[in-house]
Design a protein that fits this description.
Number of domains: 1
Helix content: 25-40%
Largest sheet: 3 strands, mixed
Strand content: 15-25%
CATH architecture: 5-stranded Propeller
Radius of gyration: 21 Å
Strand order of the largest sheet: 2-1-15
CATH class: Alpha Beta
Number of helices: 18
CATH topology: L-arginine/glycine Amidinotransferase, Chain A
Length: 446
């Protein structure tokens, strides 16, 4: 039976704005309070999805969250009409209003951790939404994320959905941004790599000093248990605390993998040699390619500013691999020179394709942040909600939907506008019909 990796990219929400909410994310903080372009951001994301579809990839679409999050604002004591709630939050707690308007769910690498059926003890694809406890604006997402995942992967015969982990920093879980899977074929049993930033219950262990470590080993172990993974096919590795303090807030900013390729910076991990040895032993094949990028070729600073590792590595129909990179990699002479050299080496990576995702990059997320990877076989793919799989017709519907509902520009002052809330809800209500995902939003149920 054939198997595939399907990338489900997050649609950029109508309230996409630059609030600088993510401490430890250099790009997010440096562009705080600039005017954003929700329409451009959404169209850039859709163009990337369509391009991968045109390259022969199976490409999915994942809906955004409801924002502004009026429910959370009311829970925090703001009252009256929806317009009153927005105005009160704007006047008395603008940072809370910013958080409750964040379109951060566009980065679906943080939506969940996914284990394919070949790896799990019940032979189903497992999903655990990330709790994202480290950042308030992202901690608002998990419940709706779980509902969206169930609407897309809605066949209990093939898919197993878990509740997100306990909402506490001891079990801080950032989803697929700190998880990757290596295998020979997508449908074969693979090795799942869980990268963590700290030990929550052992403060004597290494940890970053400037920026927070968002993923704990305890969370990673819990997800592996929930998914029924075999110990002999799981590797836990700690991220280098020093690179977290340099702005590498998720592992996918410093390493990325696909099938039998792990592409990583030499400073990415603690005890790198031990990690690679364990990984090689559990992978059990001479065909594993561990591509280490030396600091003399690409510094951590260049890796962060260009998101060299926050790229996608995809397997093309001819069996070779391509890197999907942001234009920032093309425009940096050192990173471009490295990528030009990389495609000539004896590895499966033979192409680099550059995409304009500048609106996402300015808010701190590159191509890898925008997608949730789901490996499936033919039967499982056939069980996915077909309205959420990219094709020419869906692309036309979604670009028309964006053109109709999205604003050209948003500033912070616009977040208090009750009309933006109305526009957002109208757009999401129509989107649920386009994707046939049902009433997944709170405003549709109230």
């Amino acid at each position: 039976m054939k198997s595939f990796e399907v990338n489900f990219d997050g649609l950029v929400g109508p309230t996409h704005n630059y609030a600088g909410l993510s401490e430890g994310n250099v790009a997010s903080k440096s562009n705080a309070n600039e005017a954003s372009s929700p329409k451009s951001a959404a169209l850039q994301g859709l163009a990337k999805m369509k391009a991968l579809h045109d390259m022969g990839m199976n490409q999915g679409v994942f809906a955004p969250q409801e924002r502004p999050d009026i429910f959370s604002l009311r829970r925090l004591g703001f009252s009256g009409t929806d317009a009153n709630v927005l105005e009160q939050a704007y006047k008395h707690s603008p940072s809370v209003l910013s958080a409750c308007c964040s379109a951060s769910s566009m980065w679906t690498a943080n939506a969940a951790t996914v284990s394919p059926s070949a790896d799990t003890n019940d032979g189903k694809v497992h999903f655990t939404p990330a709790n994202l406890t480290n950042k308030f604006h992202r901690s608002l997402e998990p419940t709706t994320t779980g509902s969206l995942l169930k609407a897309v992967f809605n066949d209990d015969n093939h898919f197993n959905h878990h509740l997100h982990l306990n909402d506490n920093d001891h079990f801080g879980d950032e989803g697929a941004a700190n998880h990757t899977r290596l295998c020979n074929e997508y449908g074969e049993k693979g090795v799942e790599i869980f990268t963590f930033g700290k030990y929550a219950f052992n403060v004597a262990m290494p940890a970053p000093k400037i920026y927070p470590a968002r993923q704990t080993i305890e969370a990673s172990q819990a997800v592996a248990r929930l998914h029924g993974l075999s110990d002999d096919k799981v590797v836990y590795v700690q991220q280098n605390p020093d690179v977290i303090d340099q702005g590498v807030f998720h592992n996918d900013v410093i390493a990325v993998g696909n099938q039998n390729v792990l592409f990583y910076h030499e400073q990415a991990f603690l005890q790198t040699d031990r990690f690679i040895n364990e990984l090689s032993g559990k992978f059990g094949s001479e065909e594993l390619h561990c591509i280490k990028v030396d600091s003399k070729d690409v510094s951590v600073q260049d890796a962060v500013s260009t998101y060299l590792f926050n790229t996608q590595i995809i397997t093309l129909n001819d069996g070779t691999m391509a890197i999907i990179a942001p234009m920032h990699c093309h425009d940096n002479p050192r990173v471009k020179a490295y990528l030009d050299k990389l495609v000539t080496l004896n590895t499966p990576i033979k192409q680099v394709k550059y995409f304009d995702v500048n609106e996402s990059m300015k808010n701190g997320g590159g191509p890898a942040c925008l997608r949730l990877r789901v490996a499936m076989n033919e039967q499982e793919l056939a069980a996915v909600n077909p309205n959420c799989l990219m094709n020419d017709e869906l692309y036309g519907k979604l670009t028309g939907w964006v053109d109709k509902h999205y604003r050209e520009q948003i500033n912070f002052d616009d977040l208090r506008d009750p009309q933006l809330l109305i526009e957002s809800r109208e757009s999401l209500d129509q989107l649920t019909q386009i994707l046939n995902i049902g009433s997944v939003y709170r405003f549709q149920k109230d």
